[in-house]
Amino acid sequence: MKRFVLCTILLCCLLSQSLDEILHKVYQNNNAIGMSVIVTAKNKMVFSGVYGLRDVDRKLSITQDTIYRIASISKMITATALMQLFERGKFQLDDDISDYLKYKVVHPHFPKEKITFRSLLAHTSGLRDDKAYYTFLREDDIIPLRELLCEEGKYFSRNLFDEKHPPGYFKYANVNYGVIASLVEVLSEERFDKYCERYIFAPLNITASFNIHTLKNVDNIAALYRYKDEQWQAQADHFQGKPPAKKDFSGYTPGTNGFLFAPQGGLRISAKNLAKLMMFYYDKQNNNVLQSPTKELMYKIVWQYDKKNGDNYYGIFNSYALGNHTTTDLIRGEKLIGHPGEAYGLISDMYFSPTKEFGIVFISNGAKNWQKGKHSGWYRIEEEVFQHCYAFVQKYLAE
């Protein structure tokens, strides 16, 4: 028996070493500046690899504790916060959000169609990332969300709403998740960043935040890069050891404007802690943040692409649920649930199989040029990382 266990451990070590060498070549061949990869099986991290730099100027390496601004994977965590409040009976998914925000949000092109919690979560609300949305985001002052969503608001634009298609048509839009964060604040009477810390991160023993000033060491945060004019140019999180200026929230009323915490893409977390979160999502026994029936409801497909009912975002989103989607394209034929992210040069992925209980986290803080994938809407590096990690975890689970 001892000999069998020892052989199994040695085989796993050899598999990990082989995968590490393969991924290092993937990292080099794709001209990435840095990347982190985690593979999980059941309730364990069975592989962890780090490659390259988190800060080019200071030549700081990516480590197991490097924190990334993970872009749109954040939406799944924002959806989790809202679904906790659903679980507590605070609202129903098909309720009109106007009844909770305490001001009327009306689709100007389809005024009889209500905007619901479900439609926000599934990007079928009719809201769009129009110019008005970006103008609103750039404001330094704390501006109430109603100034964007209500017709009498300073930042309102009819172009913020889809003119051609009624609610039900899928169009991926960040604006939905700023509204969701505001609803989390209204329903919980707590600031969005603090709510997530209290009810998601702390119970799972995870270091993560939607507010950079709660992170202890900004030196651990990876700068995000694009390659321009034959040099790496930092696009975001280039703090060089000094945290950015604090925003004064002393007079802030929860529900005013959830966008302040970037719920659509601004979660900062390490790959290791993101993997912990991922294991919670597929672990049917772990009900400490969400009950299993609520998780299953989150994964239930709301919208399915039929070539006429939405924009499938380069072929990535052929279905969408409540803050996540299902794909069989990233690993051909393997059904995975999760979310991708892309912003400021970074790309990120968190995908898992609830039935086979494995998952893969991939994050890179930039590359000279992301190459298109060969068989899906993802980039080549994403396809390659997932292909090799999948082969590894299949062998691991077979042992």
UniProtKB/TrEMBL annotation:
Record field: transmembrane: none
Record key words, sorted: Hydrolase
InterPro entries per record: AmpC-like (IPR050491), Beta-lactam-related (IPR001466), Beta-lactam/transpept-like (IPR012338)
Highest rank taxon of the organism: Bacteria
UniProt GO MF annotations: hydrolase activity
Beta-lactamase-related domain sequence ranges: 24-369
Protein name as annotated: Serine hydrolase
Organism: Uabimicrobium amorphum
